Amino acid sequence: MTGQQQAGRIAVVTGAARGIGFATAQRLAADGVHVVLTDVDGHVEEAAAAISRDQGGRAEARRLDVRDEAACEALIAGLPRVDVMVNNAGIFDVKRTEDLTPEDFRRMYDINLVGMFVLARAAARRMSASGRIVNIASRAYLGAVDYAHYVASKAAVVGLTRALALELAPRGILVNAVAPGVIDTPILAAWSDEARARLASVQPVGRLGRPEDIANMVAFLASPTTDFITGQVILVDGGRSLGGLTG
Ligand code: NAP
Fold first, then answer.
1. What is the distance in A from the centroid of ligand 1 to the CA of 90?
2. CA-based, 20 to 30 A from 146: which of 24, 33, 36, 57?
3. Residue 247 has pLDDT above 60, yes or no
4. To which H or E segment does residue 34 belong?
């Protein structure tokens, strides 16, 4: 996709101060899209300024907590147009089911799912044909141990994506999800170097994912020339979900 084909399009990316969201904003701006980086994290201003410097002003920052429905609505309503909505903001933590509380579930759902729904709804109202919504799920939606609240929230992201895709397809708005495997971002900050190396060694491709691996797929799905794919969950996980047979 050339910058010219994407010129004039506006994308909103949540959780864009760092990690996958930042890499996605960088990639979309490089493709010629004007990107609105949003995050609760104050570093979002620096992040947008860095992209803007490299990409001829094609980035701006807004502080946004995706749990704040009124702020989400106001942000979307205040933009001149919305062509691409990337729902990336998310949290993760590890807790065995016996220790999980309903409050843990509600917090996870409020950020990983409900905020996504509010922004997708607001963006869909503003989008014309060629609108694109890309939701960041996780390979964990297939099932994982010690974070049932996260797994459930990401499985719900998949359900939301499929439902929205069916509703919005007649208007030419396509909705897909990207399900990353283990991607080396600050979300893994608590992992030791040994743990990271061990994790890398069990990936079929022999390495952890990079934020750019996800950004590339998001940019593909966000492009107006990708116009026959909707309601899909694209696993970008170095082959980890294949399982693989030994012996
Ligand atoms: P990250 O480095 O932690 O970045 C997430 C960003 O979202 C942070 O800047 C965070 O701000 C922000 N955020 C948290 N709560 C928010 C809220 N209420 N409103 C707005 N922004 C909020 O994480 P990442 O690894 O890039 O992950 C991005 C997405 O990919 C998430 O949805 C995650 O579940 C998904 N994912 C990641 C991996 C992985 O291995 N990295 C794998 C599968 C799926 P703070 O600085 O305040 O926390």
1. 4
2. 24
3. no
4. strand 34-39
20 Cα–ligand 1 center, Å: 8
Q: Which residues are catalytic?
A: 150
Residue 37's nearest CA partner among 56, 10, 71, 6 is 10
Query: Does ligand 1 come within 6 angstroms of the Cβ of 191?
Result: no
Q: Whose CA is nearest to atom 39 of ligand 1?
A: 183
pLDDT over 90 for what percent of the chain?
90
The whole-number average pLDDT for the span 99-111 is 98
Structure tokens at 141: 């939606």
Domains of the chain by residue range: 3-236
Helix axes of 19-30 and 211-222: crossing angle, nearest 10 degrees: 50
Tell me how far apart the terminal alpha carbons of the chain are, to the nearest angstrom.
44
Cβ–ligand 1 distance for 89 under 6 Å, the answer yes
- HSE-CB at 89 with a 13 A cutoff on CA atoms is 33
